[in-house]
Amino acid sequence: MFKPLELYIGLRYTRAKRRNHFISFISFTSLLGIMLGVVALITVLSVMNGFQKEVRERILGMTSHATISAYNEDLQNWPEAIQLARNHANVIGEAPFIEAQTMLTRGGKVSGALLRGILPDYEKQVSTVGAHMLSAKLEDLEAGSFGIVLGRELATLLGAQMGDKVTVVTPQLRVTPAGSMPRIKSFTVRGIFEVGMGEYDRGIALVHLEDAAKLMKMGEGVTGVRLKLDDLFLAPRVSRELANALPGIFRVSDWTYQHRNFFSALRTEKRMMWLILFLIVAVAAFNIVSALVMVVTDKQSDIAILRTLGISPASISWIFIVQGAVIGITGTMAGVVGGVALALNLERIVQWIEGFFGVSFLDPNIYYISALPSELNWNDVGIIGASAFLITLGATLYPAWRASRTQPAEALRYE
Predict the structure, then answer these.
(1) What are the boundaries of each domain within the chain?
(2) Mean per-residue pLDDT for 221-238?
(3) Which strand (E) or helix (H) includes residue 273?
(4) Helices marked H in 345-407 — which ranges?
């Protein structure tokens, strides 16, 4: 099988200055293509990981990792549900909430919004909305004051500022001498937040839990309990465990189910981008085939002499496999080093380019994510490096097989 002799001759062929400069050029472009392909793969996948993480954190900053609610009715024993969830090892935060679709009006301006009743002290355990307040604090929501906190875009649409009155219209009806009328209540704007997601900045309003209960006539009940976990990727398993542990019939859902289509689309996009960019490495591998075939043709007499000295066809194959593997390893390692370095410093590089040329790739006035996030995943790096090396190694098989089929008499006939 493989001996140091094949390794020595293969490395010698790799280092040797060939008479045919075209072969050297193709070998160099093959190495460069592999390196650029690996760099592009690592960098692009790191950027996609960064965007996915940024969007996921912004979504989960307003929603929750998991939610406990009752079937077709209000959750009355929510303190018991919180206590049971708190006993779970992976649950690190709990918060009751009331949600209802409402209509907000002010000065003739109307907008639909999701009204969410919260307890400020509990809410900070499961969401980051308190850290994104543009004015006032989330704790300014007090029971009985009927204060409301609006998303920035929603406040702009209504023309509402701090201290203004906003009328909340609920779909629930109340019977009056004039007939059935929707339930209406005036709230005072106590704060404005901006989390950087239009879905929430435009469509959510926060009030105190007790004020929401009075408005919706829910008494001591709530819509459900939101949970935060120490590892968000454990949400499906923890949800099932809580559903089995809680007495009675509860509906337990998690973020992977609530936003399944969105994150499935992101995963599909990442896979397709990986496949498209990997074609760069495949093209470089075809160049290795071309280069080695020409090397085999150029080294016909050398191969014949080696065969007459007793080297087996298998050893001849290993010589050219070593030569192609050196190109693959060098290109892959250079690509991995370059890709990791670029992915780790991408944000600073982009900032320097923007400052030097006076341009902005992600205008904060247009995009919610104004920086180019990058998150290096070492599993991706390992898979990319291994795949690039294997495909380049596979590209050496045909030229090596062709070299092993060389007949010494035919090759030396005209020497």
Answers:
(1) 4-57+262-410, 65-256
(2) 86
(3) helix 260-298
(4) 346-357, 378-395, 397-404
